[in-house]
């Protein structure tokens, strides 16, 4: 077997033992005589694994009983529309923070539904930072306040979350389960699974049940959180295989422990940031030090030509997918929970070698 170090921003590396378990169970799920992909979502076997995935997430994140955990489809992108459709009523205003490409997308969709107030706009400083809490200019009686906890493209991350009177809504697609958080401080958290939670195809929504009740009657049934709360995410056929994989990931995270993963994530990111800071300016970190993401480490080289040869030479050395997002260029190393420490060490050694040859 030859597995490379995969720095992809998502879909992203999964733990090898999880992939191997899925491989073992692919054709014949234990006791079922068929694949989990071939069985009814109304059957006992699927019901048990979805219930376990929910219980594991509740335990790992400390999700209180008055919050629902939903398994939806449509990616985090659908949440850009569902959040305002469900929570932003006519005559109300929602506060949004502009922190980068993903925050902007959320703002664009919310504007299609209702009135948006940009409570903090660091648009001029993207991709170097996310807003500071002190910059927030919140509306009185906002329907909710929206943030993007980690801007995957910029590599900039909120290190602390604002305390807001209105429900705080967070797109946590690229850092959910990478650090401990207090769910109680949020009204709604959403995340596409394909970075820290599993393969693509399933989106997690954690929602305080009472805020789901305000949804206007005109919203289609599949787009109402209430529908999925009432039916335990089984209103229609769920993405069974993705939920199965997500369940295996939650077991793996339980074995590791969120605190331990958090410490390891910080240590992994620090190895690369240290290499950047000690390079005498050859490598330049994109995000300001106080906003540096532990999940997506972004940096520049002296020229675009050097960036291009860095990414292609790294790929030849089995350090894959280091090219920055097409909209911003540069280099991006995505190092989610499942990314191994040894891969980070290999990248740092490569960075030093590349600088010696090109610096
Ligand atoms: N928000 C963030 C922070 C993301 O990183 C991404 C995907 N990279 C999205 C939203 C969009 O997610 P999806 O592709 O699941 O719609």
Explain what you see:
- The chain has 359 residues and is α/β, with parallel strands linked by helices.
- The protein folds into 2 domains: 241 residues, Aspartate Aminotransferase, domain 2 (3-Layer(aba) Sandwich); 102 residues, Alpha-Beta Complex (Aspartate Aminotransferase, domain 1), CATH 3.90.1150.10.
- It is built from 9 helices and 14 strands.
- It has a 7-stranded mixed beta sheet with strand order 2-10-9-8-5-3-4, with helices on both faces. A 3-stranded antiparallel beta sheet has the order 11-12-14. A two-stranded parallel ribbon has the order 1-13.
- The longest helix is centred in the last third of the chain and has 20 residues.
- The radius of gyration is 21 Å and the shape is globular.
- The model has no long low-confidence stretch (mean pLDDT 97).
- Bound molecules: 4'-deoxy-4'-aminopyridoxal-5'-phosphate.
Cα end-to-end separation: 35 Å
Uncertain segments of ≥5 residues (pLDDT<50)?
none
Q: How many strand segments? A: 14
* CATH architecture name of the largest domain: 3-Layer(aba) Sandwich
- Counting copies of identical and different chains, the oligomeric state is single chain
In the CATH hierarchy, the third-tier topology of the largest domain is known as: Aspartate Aminotransferase, domain 2
Broad CATH class of the largest domain: Alpha Beta
Total domains = 2
Give the name of the CATH superfamily of the largest domain: Type I PLP-dependent aspartate aminotransferase-like (Major domain)
Q: Shape, please?
A: globular
Q: How are strands sequenced across the largest beta sheet? A: 2-10-9-8-5-3-4
Which range does the strand content fall in? 15-25%
Helical content (DSSP H or I, runs of 4+): 25-40%
Present as ligands are: 4'-deoxy-4'-aminopyridoxal-5'-phosphate
Helix vs. strand class: alpha/beta
Largest sheet: 7 strands, mixed
The value of Rg in angstroms is 21 Å
- Average pLDDT number: 97
Q: Tally the helices: what do you get?
A: 9
Which sequence of SSEs, written as H and E, runs from N to C?
Answer: EHHEHEHEEEEEEEHHHEEHEEH
């Amino acid at each position: 077997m030859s597995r490379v170090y995969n720095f992809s921003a998502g879909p992203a590396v999964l733990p090898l033992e999880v992939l191997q378990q899925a491989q073992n169970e692919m054709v014949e799920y234990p006791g079922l005589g068929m694949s989990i992909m071939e069985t009814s979502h109304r059957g006992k076997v699927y019901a048990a694994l979805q219930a376990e995935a929910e219980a594991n997430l509740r335990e790992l994140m400390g999700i209180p009983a008055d919050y629902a955990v939903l398994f939806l489809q449509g990616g985090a992108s659908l949440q850009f529309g569902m959040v305002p459709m469900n929570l932003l009523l006519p005559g109300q205003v929602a506060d949004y923070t502009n922190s980068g490409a993903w925050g902007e997308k959320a703002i664009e969709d919310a504007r299609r539904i209702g009135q948006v107030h940009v409570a903090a706009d660091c648009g001029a400083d993207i991709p170097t930072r996310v807003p500071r809490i002190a910059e927030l200019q919140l509306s009185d009686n906002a329907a909710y306040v929206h943030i993007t906890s980690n801007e995957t493209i910029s590599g900039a991350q909120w290190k602390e979350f604002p305390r807001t009177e209105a429900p705080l809504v967070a797109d946590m697609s690229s850092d959910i389960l990478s650090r401990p958080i207090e769910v109680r401080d949020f009204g709604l958290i959403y995340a596409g699974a394909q970075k820290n939670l599993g393969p693509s195809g399933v989106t997690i929504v954690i929602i305080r049940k009472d805020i789901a009740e305000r949804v206007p009657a005109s919203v289609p049934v599949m787009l109402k959180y209430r529908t999925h709360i009432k039916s335990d995410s089984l209103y229609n056929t769920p993405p069974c295989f993705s939920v199965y994989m997500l369940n295996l990931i939650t077991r793996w995270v339980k074995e590791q422990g969120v605190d331990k993963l958090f410490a390891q994530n910080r240590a992994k990111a620090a190895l690369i940031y240290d290499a950047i800071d000690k390079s005498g300016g050859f490598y330049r970190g994109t995000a300001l030090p106080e906003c540096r993401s532990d999940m997506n480490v972004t940096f520049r080289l002296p020229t675009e030509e050097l960036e291009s040869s860095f990414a292609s030479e790294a790929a030849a050395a089995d350090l894959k997918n280091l090219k920055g997002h097409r909209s911003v260029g540069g280099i991006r190393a995505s190092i989610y929970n499942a990314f191994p420490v040894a891969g980070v060490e290999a990248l740092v050694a490569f960075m030093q070698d590349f600088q010696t040859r090109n610096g």
